Structures are given as C-alpha cells and as structure tokens.
Amino acid sequence: MGVLMSKRQTVEQVQKEVQEEKEPDAGTPVTQEESSVHRAAWERLRDGRGVEPEEFDKTSRFTPPAFIRPTRKLDDDKPLEILLEPREPVVNDEMCDICEVWTAESLFPCRVCTRVFHDGCLRRMGYLQEDGSAAVMEMAHTETGWSCHYCDNLNLLLTEEEMYSLSETFQQCKVIPDCSLTLEDFVRYRHQAAKRGERNRALSDEQEEQAARQFAALDPEHQGHVEWPDFLSHESLLLLQQLRPQNSLLRLLTVKERERARAAFLALGSGNAISEAQCRQAQHSWFCKHPAEPASCNVSISHVGPIADRSPASSGSRSQDKALLPAEQESRSVDWPTFLRQSIIYILAARPNSAAIHLKPPG
C-alpha cells in the first residue's frame, strides 16, 4: 500500500520551484502555454494527484498530503493463503484520517479500508463538494458504502515503474490526461496500445467489439464519452492484470474485501465449492453502487458483492453467460481459493464510487 507523509507536511515548496522553472515569459506563444498545461496534467497523473495545492483556497482548506506510490516487496509473488474460515474481524479506525481527532460527530467509514473521515475535513481538503455532502452521508451508511479518496482512485495502486510504463503508453498513443474519450478515441487507443504490445498487431474484429462493450460499461449513463478518472482506473486495472502475479494482487485486498468475498462465496453455495456458472455470475455482478433500487441488491451480502438480475452490472449478461457455458462447465465445481483468485481483479474494479464498470468480465 502507499505511504503518506505527515498530514501537516505540504508539497508547496517543491511545486513552487517547479512552477518558477517552467513559468513562461510574458511574450510566450499560446502553444507553449498549452504545453505547460499538458505538462502539469502529466505531473498530476504521475503523482496521483487531481488538483494542485496552489489551486486551493488556503483560508478554508487543508493542503493535501504528498502521496508516495507503493513499492512491491521481493516476496509479494509467493503463495498467500487466505482461508474461508475463520472469519476476520473488521474494525474501523477511531480517529478521522485527516485531522487525527476523535469527536462525537458522525464519521464516514470507507467501504474498502478502515479509514474514517469527518465531512467537514473532506470539504476542506476539496474531496467533498457542498452539494455532494448529503449524498456521501447517505451512501457511507448504506450497505453499498462509500470509497474514500485513496481507494476510489485505482491508479494509486501502481508503483512508480508501472506508472511510468502507463504514462509512456499514453504519450505514445497521444492520450491527453484529464480529457474524456469518445468511443472512437477509446477504440483507436486500444488499437495503438495493442500494436505497442508484445504481439505487435492491431485488434481483431472480436477484440474491437469487446473494446466497444467495455466502453459502454464505462459510460453507464450513455453520455457518448468516458470520463478521464474512469478511463485511468480501467487502464490501471489492465496493467495490474498484465504485470502482477495473482499472489501479488491478493495482497492488495483489504480485510473488508476479503470478508465480502467470503460472504459472497458462502451465499452462493452450501459447502466448500460452488459451480463454475455461479463463479461467472459473481464476476458479472460484483458491482453494486446505487442503493436507490433496493430490489437490485442482495442484502445478505454487505456493501459491494453479488447482486440480483435487475442490477446494471448483470442485466442482459447472465442469459448470455448461460448460453455461452456448456452444461459440463456450468456444473464444474470451483473451490474457495480458485474463486478468490478469479475474483481479485473484479473486487478491485468495484472500489471506485463511479457507476462505471471499470473492468467488464468476458462474455
């Protein structure tokens, strides 16, 4: 996991020096100003930041702490045993992660990690807008839950080396950070990224159709474009899936996520195994982020987990899965370790608060 510097420590001095070095002269052409904006966007992408500290109103907001990207340990690819039983206790932190003060006020618990927050602290940090406070309060105390700013951004899971690789791909494919992508942009990027890969070939027709389906999953409101944070989370997941062994990915799961996976597995079967069809069903229905439709959620599974047929994540896909799976494959048993390994990437994909499906399962 990433390490955070002191909450009182700022990065203003470093950024001020960088700003002075790159500050254009009064007579600089507009093209250089645009280049400076793009360069700043790349720096925010590299550092996992969304807003520069100098853009904050310092009279009413804190300066966000500097984020240090995680590093992989030498033994993180060694086998990791996560047992179905006994269950793990889940205990949230007692103090607000921002101000480090305990008060009697209501604290927002993160559904992924054990951090808790005051709504006032979230607003002063710029992570919560005034008009979104009520929605966050409602979401944080439902079964769906709410992800904090650390867990909501899947890009923060990448190491410096992985982030450099992703940034190189973006630059060579001419992807501009902080900009939304249309379907044409998304498919063109996937073609270019495929040509840069090991096989050095363009997407097949089937892969292009799969890219279009993934675009639709990233654009659940049918706006015709994918927002930058959703695209970045999707690409970060693909890179993790490509570069990390499953044992390394297992170590990314938090105690809350492991407990939800246990609850999901036990709810799907009565013993130590479930069918292949049930495992695929869980992969397609792991995303439940809108409690406004109670009938769409399986209330026996807390927060994020397998949901019923009416959910956005599973509508129209479950019948396809059953048609695609042969009878013998549907009845093939899947034990707990296999279920967890096959579900890791989709559990991680369910972290963001966005309604987008950041990694659509095949089928």
Automatic annotation (TrEMBL):
SUPFAM superfamilies: EF-hand (SSF47473), FYVE/PHD zinc finger (SSF57903). It holds the Pfam family zf-RING_15. One of its GO terms (cellular component) is nucleus. Coiled coil: none annotated. GO terms for molecular function: transcription corepressor activity; zinc ion binding. The lineage of its organism: Eukaryota, Metazoa, Chordata, Craniata, Vertebrata. Residues 1-62, 308-327 are annotated as: Disordered. Residues 14-25, 35-60 have a biased composition (Basic and acidic residues). This is PHD finger protein 24. Residues 89-161 form the KIAA1045 RING finger domain. Keywords: Metal-binding, Zinc, Zinc-finger. The keyword Zinc-finger applies.
